[in-house]
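Homework help board

Subject: predicted structure for assignment chain

Our instructor gave us this sequence and asked us to write out the predicted structure in token form, then describe one feature. I got the tokens but I'm not sure how to describe them. Can anyone check?
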Amino acid sequence: MLKFVKGYLESIEGVSTYPMISLLIFFIFFVVLFWWVLTASKEHIKEMSEMPLESDNQENHIR
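My token output:
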């Protein structure tokens, strides 16, 4: 099975660019994510971390 896939991929012209493009997209995504984590405000992170607890408390008070 693997020989068939390898032979088929070798016949595609320019197939070597796809792994490079996917690696570049992967790298850019994680660099942007890392930058966002470092620059996110502490208030925003605290507010987001408390959201699940707030919704549980609100549902319990309504009932």
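Reply (TA_rk): Your tokens look well-formed. For the description, you could write something like this. The mean pLDDT is 82. That's the kind of observation they're looking for.
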